[in-house]
Specification:
5-stranded mixed beta sheet, 34% strand, globular, single chain
Length: 445
């Protein structure tokens, strides 16, 4: 009899212990067993948590070399994400003992995220339709990979400066399943001052849009490799609840045209997407030059559902003015509804040069050079790109310059176009091209 009483008491104490853990609020960590090792799950539960109410769950993946405790404390204690996303429980799984701690290695490591979600669901009232996977830096890259593999698990992906490792990583469709992008809303945020990742993050956002993703994002001005202020995060969180405009609307994504024209004509294509839940059936665009002179009106007709990526070729567009042309595209009508003319996109589109410059032609890339702005670089979308008019070290010369190092990314074989102004190759008997190149060698090993 005493044994039975003791056993019942033991069960009561055990049940009470589990219940006590389940009711923990504020910031705390628990230890879970996964793949033969102990892994931390750091959590934040609102102090006014009520088990009768269902809560949003944000699962946050930290960056390389960090840990779950530091990441939780940064987001909760300093950035106050709980203020930007009320009625939300946060779970921060630790990356484990591998060197990168990126949730993708060793194989199967991403399953710890599922374990973390199951733990939170077992102990708290989680709205299973409102789970967002977030990540910063290398954790943001992991969130992109994992979320695009299993988009059905998440209401959205929040990618803060996803640290995609160069050109080949970005184009690795076995790793990033872009074909699933239309199945989950995604927000991409990065710092415009983040030298290593700003270009590839912008490329990622456009790639997602081109795959009909419910995607939004921007580069935050004067921000480096860090997280944006709470005001911006509030907007990001609200996107997952209300991603669409109430009225029919469209958003410009890309504008493609020839870089140079010898006769003043180009054949541009505008790429845009529907930014509302009302299907787009037609739109009217007008084009103006930098002097606000009218160029033409262009009609698009078709069908574009919400977030559908659509291309529209304007046909031949003729210019009379020579030199570098900046174009302004306005939308004036959508679905037969007249709009006050709204700037759709402004683009430095092409150079109208009706003749080729005679040889010899020397370009030294100085700021005072009249032809400097006529050089065009067609970027690859890589983390780093060629830049002109760049002052390097303590010299007064301006160069076409590219930064690259094996210490960060593998960019071997990445090619970009550098297009000169039109040249008259008939002005000499044997036209030749020569250029000066300088580089600083990075010794490896």
């Amino acid at each position: 009899m005493k044994k039975n009483v003791f056993f019942c008491l033991f069960l009561f104490i055990s049940a009470f212990s589990v219940s006590a853990v389940a009711q923990q609020k504020g910031s705390f960590s628990v230890t879970l067993q996964f793949a033969g090792e102990s892994r931390l799950l750091s959590c934040y539960v609102p102090s006014d948590y009520n088990s009768e109410n269902a809560y949003k769950l944000i699962v946050g993946l930290h960056g390389a070399g960090d840990n779950s405790v530091n990441y939780r404390d940064a987001l909760i204690n300093y950035l106050k994400w709980q203020d930007a996303s009320p009625n939300t429980i946060f779970a921060f799984p630790d990356g484990g003992s591998d060197e990168a701690k990126d949730f993708l290695a060793p194989e199967g490591d991403e399953l710890f995220i599922d374990e973390a979600i199951e733990y939170m669901k077992e102990n708290y009232n989680i709205d299973e339709s409102n789970i967002i996977l977030q990540g910063f830096s290398l954790g943001g890259r992991s969130a992109a990979v994992i979320g695009l593999r299993s988009p059905e698990k998440y209401k959205g992906l929040l990618l803060n400066t996803p640290a995609i490792q160069g050109y080949y990583d970005f184009h690795n469709t076995e790793l990033f399943n872009y074909s699933n992008a239309s199945k989950v809303p995604i927000v991409v945020l990065w710092g415009d001052a983040d030298f290593a990742y700003r270009l590839v993050c912008d490329s990622l956002l456009r790639r997602l849009m081109e795959n009909d993703c419910e995607a939004a994002g921007l580069g935050v001005g004067n921000m480096g490799h860090t997280l944006p202020p709470t005001q911006i995060m509030s907007i990001a969180f609200s996107f997952f609840d209300m991603p669409l405009a109430d009225l029919a609307d469209a958003e410009a994504i890309r504008f493609d045209a020839e870089k140079f024209s010898c006769d003043g004509s180009i054949h541009p294509t505008i790429f845009f997407r529907n930014y509302s839940d009302e299907p787009l059936q037609n739109a009217t665009f007008t084009l103006y030059d930098q002097d606000n002179d009218f160029i033409g009106t262009y009609e698009w007709a078709g069908e574009a559902k919400a977030f559908k990526f659509t291309g529209f070729n304007l046909g031949e567009v003729q210019f009379d003015k020579s030199g570098s042309q900046k174009l302004y595209l306005y939308v004036t009508k959508i679905n037969d509804e007249e709009l006050a003319p709204r700037l759709f996109d402004s683009l430095t589109c092409f150079v109208y040069q009706g003749h080729g410059e005679p040889l010899p032609f020397l370009e030294i890339f100085e700021d005072y050079d009249a032809f400097l702005e006529n050089w065009e670089v067609v970027p690859s979308g890589n983390n780093f790109t060629w830049m002109h008019s760049y002052t390097f070290y303590d010299t007064d010369d301006n160069y076409m310059m590219m930064f690259n190092t094996i210490a960060l990314f593998n960019n071997m074989g990445v090619a970009e176009e550098m297009i000169s102004p039109p040249l008259d190759l008939t002005s000499v008997d044997v036209p030749t091209l020569s250029f000066d190149a300088a580089f600083s060698y990075h010794r490896w090993g």
